[in-house]
Design brief:
The complex is a heterodimer. By secondary structure, chain A is of the alpha/beta class. Chain A is built from 9 helices and 19 strands. Chain A has 2 domains: 191 residues, FAD/NAD(P)-binding domain; 151 residues, D-Amino Acid Oxidase, subunit A, domain 2 (D-Amino Acid Oxidase, Chain A, domain 2), CATH 3.30.9.10. An 8-stranded mixed beta sheet of chain A has the order 5-6-4-14-15-16-13-17. In chain A, strands 8-2-1-12-19-18 form a 6-stranded mixed beta sheet, with helices on both faces. Chain A has a 3-stranded antiparallel beta sheet with strand order 9-10-11, with no helix packed on it. In chain A, strand 18 and strand 19 form a beta hairpin. Chain A is globular and about 65 Å long. By secondary structure, chain B is α/β, with parallel strands linked by helices. Helices cover 34% and strands 24% of the residues of chain B. Chain B has 3 domains: 187 residues, FAD/NAD(P)-binding domain (3-Layer(bba) Sandwich), CATH 3.50.50.60; 145 residues, FAD/NAD(P)-binding domain; 74 residues, Arc Repressor Mutant, subunit A (Orthogonal Bundle). Chain B is built from 14 helices and 23 strands. In chain B, strand 1, helix 1 and strand 2 form a beta-alpha-beta unit. The chains are: A alpha/beta, B alpha/beta. At the A-B interface, helix 5, helix 8 and strand 17 of A face strand 4, helix 11, strand 23 and helix 14 of B. Strand 17 of chain A pairs antiparallel with strand 23 of chain B, so a sheet runs across the interface.
Amino acid sequence: MKNPDAIVIGAGVVGACSALSLVNAGLKVLVIDRGAVASGTTGAGEGNILVSDKEPSPELTLALRSRDAWFELNTDIGGGFELEAKGGVVISRSQSGIANLKKLSAQQASCGIKVVELDAKGIREIEPHISNSVEYAVLYPQDAQCQPMLAAAQIMRAVRKRGGAFIQGENVESINTKSGKVIGLSTDKATYQSPIIVNATGTWAGAIAELAGSYLPIMPRRGFILVTAPAPKIVHHKVYDADYVANVASSDADLQSSAVVEGTESGTILIGASRERVGFQSDLDVAVLRQLARQAISLFPILSNIPLLRAYRGFRPYAPDHLPVIGEDANVLGLWHAAGHEGAGIGLAPATGELIAAQITERKTFMDPTPFSPKRFKQESNVAI
Amino acid sequence: MHNVVIVGGGPAGLSAALAAAAAGAPVLLIDSNPRLGGQYWRMPSDDVGQQGEQHFDLETGLILINAVKARKEIEVLSGAQIWSATHKDGVNTLRVIQNGAEKIINTKNLILCTGAYDRTLPFPGWDTPGVMTPGGVQSLLKGHGVLAGKKVVVAGSGPFLLPVAAGVVKAGGEVVELLEANNSARWLLSPFVMLENVGKLKEAFYYVKTISQVKVRARFASAVIAAHKNSEGNLESVDVATIRGNFKIKKVRNVKCDVAAVGWGFTADTSLAGALGCKQIVAKDGGVVVSADGNQQSSIPGVFVAGEITGIGGAELSMAEGVIAGINAAKFVGCKVEVLKAHRKRRAKRQRFADALIKSYPIKDGWISWLNDQTVICRCEEVSVGNLKYAINELGATDSRTAKLLTRCGMGLCQGRVCGRSVVDLVASELKISPTDIDRFSAANRPIILPIPLGVLAAGE
């Protein structure tokens, strides 16, 4: 593609959605990934599309729009990525935890999230195998799931069908600027001209900002997921402990984990979720796997007999304030960031793409994008003009 | 003195255990089977009687097994499976499940003799009940005295087809066809190697004699390219083709049978070595094996490797390597012992034979032309050739790892042990590129070596 209007770096789900929104807005878009489609954090996720784990905040507004955008997208591009509104069930087993969950769900309800309180009997009607110790839960019917790699790949397919171009296996080595404005980029193989670059490289977004002489504090937060052998339908929703919400918001470097258990269309059961700040260390940590197994069994004792088949790890890209970064760079004009979604990147991707495309094409945004602006990290720039 | 820990109780593991013990090292031998002997000398799992007729060289096996049992320096952990292994700061941690409980073994010195399993190639109908691997047919015979069917087609490539066909005949079955995809004349390429490995020739003649007594003749340049099921869903017949040197089909006929034992040599089981981080390489036949130096040491000091995981070469090469690995591991833990020149010479001789074998029985890409879009590739997850092509041509997969993640191919119960290698070849063929080593390593490695019940995982420390 000659002289694209915009180049998106990164073909994870956020890059794919940004590219699709830009293509839909009529731009000529080139997507470049150093690896294959969804070969980073997207390929290591569960495919969560959640509203239940968000406290009332700008992120919740983003999540609500994004959840609907996923279903619109599903229709628009013809599906093929196992999108399912399976619903989330959040449980708590302590008095204080239940009180907090009641409070949170009431706040969420006032923001437009559908919540259904469940007593001991109600829980068992929808999750018959749940532990006897669970007596209170909240059902979030809007929570959904997709197969994230397929989602990214199907969206990239649509991008190409609608005139976009996709180059895999080229590593961006420099962001070329002139008088503080983006003019293009160079990879290990070629140089491309474009006035707009969208940085959708997730955990590696900070490095791309640095190439442009700017600054973006995005760091990795490691997580493991256990995958069981295919089993008869045991877990019907995404069921998780309310502690998860606290862990997501935590800034602690040590291991945190809370039970997140869900059945999938293929019969396997996914078990999460651990969070650790250990850089890009990728070895299999058996202690973490054991803890995840214990927590899952405490929710569903029947899982004890189900074999663990695989485990994989990924690195969630997070910013210090746990909000995604969506907007134009603080120092370099034409460099846009769409990154730092932590563990919510799949869920938030379509709305992120909409926000990015609307801002780039100077159209009306569905919400005020200011809270996500990279300019909130401005003071730490070292850009040379 | 620390134990020498050995994983695998086949020809390599038994030889390594005896060599290390003879040098004075205490040995812990971990074996996944209930009885020692490995696949090669698989012993009946219960007392169904002696299966001596199923083995060419049972004497050697029994001598080794009995010697291992008799040595008090050797402790044997049978029926023990390793589900996970990690290497950190010079210590190897093996997480072993035996009788439903987990044991943790930490050791600085280790000999891996984890062997190999049958290599399969997909073809239309290969998921029909009745289509088996030669290894599967043989282990039913050796382990349980059970003949998988009455009318058996034995097909594929490699010398292993001979003992399997002979085993079927000995057990009273009918071998309706014995099909070798390659041309026999290839054997004549290295007469020197044949002469110095007369023992192997004798073994081959033993099987040929058994087979020819019932007038079964091997057909060369022939292969099973499709299987058909009857109304009950079981195997009814196979399509047999004469094939060219590149494995493309020339002419097809139909053959009735109730079992087809189809195998294409072996794939080394390198999962354990891979989990520890031992360097792997791609062998000439495209299979992933563990890299070993002249002392049978892997890239991790103190971790030795012997047998099929260093390259497919048969029981005798495995034994020769096992002895050298055992001696060096004993030396590693402080025993005063050296590998002899004779040990190295024996290994070199067997290695030349193994190299000649690989040359004689190449698997050519033409097998891909036997498939159609409906052909199942991954039996666990029911992924077809068409699904893979869609992932490549529509979803933009440019390597086998991505194709796998987009289709779940190789992500089921067997974790790609059956289809992983074929998928790498297929994806590369569809993309018109050569598979990279990274593709091959990715298909051969799995951090969770074997499935473990979540309850057992949770109970561990």
